[in-house]
Fold these 4 entries.
Entry 1:
Amino acid sequence: MSFLEVLIRTTFQTFSNGSKYSSASSKLPTRTDHTNLIEVLEQFTAKDVSVHESMMFVRKPPTVRRAPVTYIDVFDHALFTVGVFILHPNAVIPLHDHPGMLGFIKVLCGEIKLTSYTKLKKLSTSDHLVVCEESQILNSLSPPTILTPHERNFHQLEFAKGESEEHQYAAFLDILSPPYNSFSGKPECNYYYPTKYSQPSDQDECASKPLLELVKHSCPREFWNDAAPYLGPNRKQIAEKLKKL
Ligand SMILES: [Fe+2]
């Protein structure tokens, strides 16, 4: 069994009985709730999903500016989506949210700066007051990061360092549940820009962390992605075997 199959099976098992983590739930998942998936993610590498082989098929256009980000669609399921985002030098995935979704981020190669925010309250239909969490530089040895519908759901990811002279990019595995296509008619994610820092009021139970006001806006023009082919283990076989579980 390939290690990708181990990951997909574990993800399926996590989310097939994980409906208690819906957006309506007030209970936050903890590391112990997802021990099996975290353990698999800790060992998961770029090799398990053939990232470097896929990147050999991404052309470098000589005259046109290349996409800052490349996406590899790894596995789509009714309960979850698995993909790999490759960040080229200077790339930024702008500040965005994943409304109602639970996500796992595992860096596979290079270094990525992750800045995340937890929503404190909605200020209007487009504005949110968020708590600034600590920024982290993540690499392939870093533990997976969890975002929940309630905690760290707003985040920005930036290229920090490439893997090597040969592979001058950084990449992370992204698992999201429910998958994007399950929200028909609703936006799948929203983009924001920060406006101003706020002082916590007596009612804001955010301790000493800074607060920031965010305003929703359209996807920044400088952010777009191209796609690389998936060249990992046979997905059809994994999907067929999943149906028998
Ligand atoms: Fe995200």
Note: The CA atoms of residues 32 and 38 lie 9 Å apart.
Entry 2:
Amino acid sequence: MYEPSTIVMKNKSIVKRSLKSVWHPCSQMKHYEEQLLIPIAKGRGSWLIDFEGKKYLDATSSWWVNLFGHNNKIIKAFVSKQLNQLEHSMIAGMTHEPVISLSEQLSELTGLGHCFYGSDGANAIEIALKMSSHYWREKGKTQKVKIVYLQNSYHGETLGALSVTDVPIFREHYSQLMQKHLQVDSPDWRLKAPNESIKEFTSAKVEKVKRLFDEKAHLISSFILEPLVQCASGMGIYDKQYLKDIRSLCNEYDIHMIVDEIAVGFGRTGKLFAHQYANITPDFLCLSKGLTGGYLPLSVTLTRDEIYEAFYHEDVRKGFLHSHSYTGNPLACSAALGTLSIFKDNDVIGNNAIKAKKINKLFESHKDLPISHFRNIGMIWAFELNNNVNIQKVIQSCVANGLFIRPINRTIYFMPPYTINDLEMRHMVKTSEEAIKRHA
Ligand SMILES: Cc1ncc(COP(=O)(O)O)c(C=O)c1O
């Protein structure tokens, strides 16, 4: 009989079984012959723990999902309660309390009137892209089908989302399957010339967008961007003025603004939503990842009432007929309600600001390391390792010393769970510092 609690499953045998049957994501499977695959038995707070009891500080919040760490009591209680009530019912032709409460709360937080659900971030992007061009079609503007996206953008791996993603290694084998859209320069500060001010650099990028809109607005349905931080292409940070200016241009040229906060939503940048730094309201807002705090997959695309109303009609074909089997799943919605309750009952953003200050103080010792472009916003830290540092060795050394990091190319970043305490902060900063020093 299978009794997990009584079986002592050692790391080696778990890894062996995994490599035999699991095709791991975002991985060259052959590299696991040499690189580590860490077998995780359980999670507690900011830590992941393997089958032999070794602990790893989860400095990426498990791909930026577990905002409140692992085994969070509050979210768990919301899900457990819902488990005794209703695990699933479709929401075409039916509805239930968790999906209603969640939609009401999200609308209140964002000022966007309607919520459409999916399961993963990429779903939310597909939904926004489809809704936007469908909206223009309903308005008789059938040519408005092109999407403007940023250099170095990342919006997910399904074909629609990938077609507005600028990460060549993810795209190159599938280009023949995708529509061509319109790419504009990234406003990432790292791309600025040394003698240029951030203001000059940002306004030059906005000016280029304006020229594109002047020429092609009649063909463009939407402009999609990750507000303030382009995470998956290496934590590139840009100025909030860019968001403000793009919002104005989108208004002026009748183009939707799709704001993808899948990675940065729910406090990661120091405000509940990153676009709030610019005091703007998007036409579409995509959320996922931290929404359920790592408990269950869920994503949501929020939009303005005026867009929703364009689909409201006698004719079924004018409705938005997109669906997924698990759309609005009650367990996933209850996990999201648990996450929102934590924000409601605690000053998460204020507490994070205090933690960020402490972490920045600890990172002061990094200034003599062979790194460049050290940057921080909210609960995100990143820098590039100089070419003389052996990055694989740095990763191995961090992991061996109980710190899990997953750099993007030569960018080392930290997006720790908001549960991180003083000792854990020290562990994160000092372990990485020692690893870099050792392998420079
Ligand atoms: C900004 C952004 N958008 C979309 C996605 C895709 O989300 P998912 O991996 O859940 O499909 C990601 C994932 O990292 C992301 O960072």
Note: Residues 126 and 160 are 6 Å apart (CA to CA).
Entry 3:
Amino acid sequence: MSRTLGRRAGTWVAGASLALGVGIVSSRLGAGVWAWLGAGAAGGGLWALFATFRRTSEVDSEGNAVGSAEGSVLVPSSAPRDNRPADGEVGIVPVLGVIAGEGPLAPEFRPFEALGPLAEEPPARGFRVWGRRFPPLLGRVAIVSVFVGRDGQPWSDDELVGAHRALKRAGAWIEREAIRWQVPVNVDLADTYFSSVEEDADREVAIFRPDDWGGMGLPDPDAEARILGILGRTAAALGFADPVDLIGRIGRRIEADQIVWLLHVRRAGKSIALPSDATGIPGVAVAVCYAQEEDFEAPMSGPPFADPITFVHELMHLFGANDKYDQPRSHVPHGTVSERDIMVLGVEALSRLAVEPLTAVEIGWASSPTERPTGPVRPLRSAADGGIRGTSPAGKKKRPRRPR
Ligand SMILES: [Zn+2]
């Protein structure tokens, strides 16, 4: 997914998956904007990933409390509350006070049914790191998944199982790299997931003409509104007022430094990531991963492909990493980026991809591209290296396209 394209064209599209990153500064933030965007959006199928960044109190480098988010005062900090070193294990984090159903992944993961009683819903808390457009990828990072069925077709039990397996693998890779860079990152998956289904009958509208874009890489000018529309409809279907309500209320029930929401939309399409300045909503950044990568959005041919490489690549964008596949290597210092970098994707195997120095600086893992990782290199646990797709034999033969 190309962030540079976004700056050029005002919107940007790429890759097979769509991840939405949403940082919530206030639960009231932008409610009107969401409503407007939701009303105007056409359908798109995929995945979205939103991230909310929050914390309860801040401690400065001397260990003194410098404030708290109580009373809506945002306190800048670059240190996560949870500073445990990465352990390579992807844990499970509870979503407090929700009523969940059963499903193929119970009791580990269960589908959200409704908000349950909670003694006191804590206030929304802001997370902001001064001097950075994105938060650093540090601390306890909770991943919350929203599975959006498309074309009237929900995610099947097998597909949900495969997607969770791929998510765990993505988390394990991030922790492996964090161990190598000796940074405190612990990735956990939320024990509750969300799902909805869209019919798409009236949304098959091609609004853009590829020819207009020449060599621009086919940006889809409607992508932002489409993604935000998906979020709006999904939130409504789940009983929330709007995406801000969904993300804010659930986020407050998860004990983590940072929360990444993954919206898995079951359609073919091209990845897009919308940082907060592209969404036009302060603190709200959006990236979406399609379940099958195609240049144009369409119903899927074959089963969805849950690709841990896509998950990691999109997640890296949300924490400040830029695509580097277009960059001439001649102008960057030797050894700071290669084909193996997660933002270059020059190799096909997740185990061979890495966070290289330039990307490490962008996500807050290194302070200079001259730094090199000094930690041990752990093997990735799972034997299968690729993503996990559905059961169709035809699908297994096809090599997945990667996000850009
Ligand atoms: Zn990208």
Note: Confidence is low (pLDDT under 50) at residues 1-76, 204-218, 390-399.
Entry 4:
Amino acid sequence: MAEDALPERLDVIAVAPHPDDLEILCGGTLAKLVKQGYKVGIFDLTSGEPTPRGSLETRKAEAEAARAALGVPVRVNVDLPNRVLMDGPEARYALATQFRKYRPNIVIVAAGRTPGASPDHLQGGLIGEAARFYSQLTKWNDRFAGTEPYRVPHLVYVPFPFEAEQRSWHSQFVVDISDTIDQKVAAVRAYGSQFDPARFARVEHMIRSTNGFHGARCGYLYGELFALPTPVGAPDLVQVVCGSKGALAPVVLPAASGVVSGNG
Ligand SMILES: [Zn+2]
């Protein structure tokens, strides 16, 4: 497929099984990336249907309203089957084809085993990792709708907060979403078929609590947690260390000395 026939490149692609997963996991960061001028796409692996109170039409409209709330320009449904989503060659081809079309610098993959919630979440993470690798494979263009190989430089995990295991990632970081938490909550509220007012109140509480906790660890009002399969590379120690604000409510020393120092 000729390059000029492809859609515009995206800086960041975020992938998860169901419309509403990414809003809950990292909607604040996606909205923030857009504000920062990056080109962002949300890639839902499935329609999310069937669900008890949803339909294909309502879910599609809700996903569109959530996209608009976050200001994310591109939202693609990869059209894999909900409830029976399984990592396997066909699913990997389908997602890798999207990576080859949109040629992102960073792919964010929702990751985690979520007993009590959909098993699609674990499978989606596996598909995301594998598709990132498959995207670069040569001599198989026919399996990827005629697209050319593309190597995705960076993979980032966004962990489900209700994961079964406590994992030790090689590195974690928190994005300050204090300025976009309200956009995030509005995007989740768009899924009225999934969250009636009573359920939404509990989900909002969970979001604000989780993001409040992660943010507080780094001195932000709200933050979203991410992880990397590698240690964080630091071209500049000071830039990395000073990205955190430190304590959210630092002790302010009496100014009698005229000097307020950070610690001690
Ligand atoms: Zn889900």
Note: The mean pLDDT is 94.
